[in-house]
Amino acid sequence: MNHQIVPLQPGLYLVATPIGTARDITLRALDVLASAQILVAEDTRSLKKLLAIHGVPLGDRPVWAYHDHSDPGARASIAAEVRAGRSVAYASEAGTPMVSDPGFALARAVVAAGGAVTTAPGPSAVIAALTLAGLPTDRFVFLGFAPARAAARRTLIDGFADTPATLVFYESPRRVHALLADLVACLGPDREAALCRELTKRFEEVQRARLADLVVALAGRTLKGECVVLVGPPTAKEISAESVSDALDTALEAHSVKDAAALVAQRFGVPRKQVYQMALERGRGGAKGDD
């Protein structure tokens, strides 16, 4: 296949790459990879293999590595190339750069140096999992990889327990059982959830169930491949009055009754009128000049 060699403006091009099936790459991504003067990759071997699969000639263009263990000097070198007027394409090992990916620090370095940053969007495990999980997608929170230590992991989960949104986690197959156990402990057994594994690959698997049932279904299994765990939002009865009350107290310190009620109602997905009444009962109606 012939890919279009197009003149690229100087800048950093964040190129999304397939999370599994190689044909999921976009035509624009291939054009950028064929045209950029310098290629940078989280995994240079993976990028070269992808180029070979799609018949994109590398020629004498350099391919630099940039990953979690790269030092600030590597970012500075890439930013300097952009500043000197060159086009640089950066590709994650899989998925969209900047999403649980070292591209974040690289993009910030280029922006700080006055360079342009743009994207060739495409595959993302977060979005792919959301489309398959059967959970609400109108509002979601991406939490990346949960902390490896149990105490920190539970603290993170507790902080989002009342958030009226679908929670999305990345997790390694070695720790997914521990993550699910902590989700049950922090959120209760009845929250709707899903486990997506090996997305877009031959052995793609999606399991949808209550958290407790998901734990039972996966008990004793040795999983392979990166996993995405999704947990649906709490129902109204799962949101404690204490949580709403605490949030309202905090909001009233900086906002009028009307605005505080609106903010808290939106955060917890509860009726604004109900929260407004709670605020009035605190006797703070004139604290911030309600209008």
Automatic annotation (TrEMBL):
One of its GO terms (cellular component) is cytoplasm. It comes from the Bacteria. Its EC number is 2.1.1.198. It is found in: Cytoplasm. One of its GO terms (molecular function) is rRNA (cytosine-2'-O-)-methyltransferase activity. Catalyzes the 2'-O-methylation of the ribose of cytidine 1402 (C1402) in 16S rRNA. This is Ribosomal RNA small subunit methyltransferase I. The gene is rsmI.
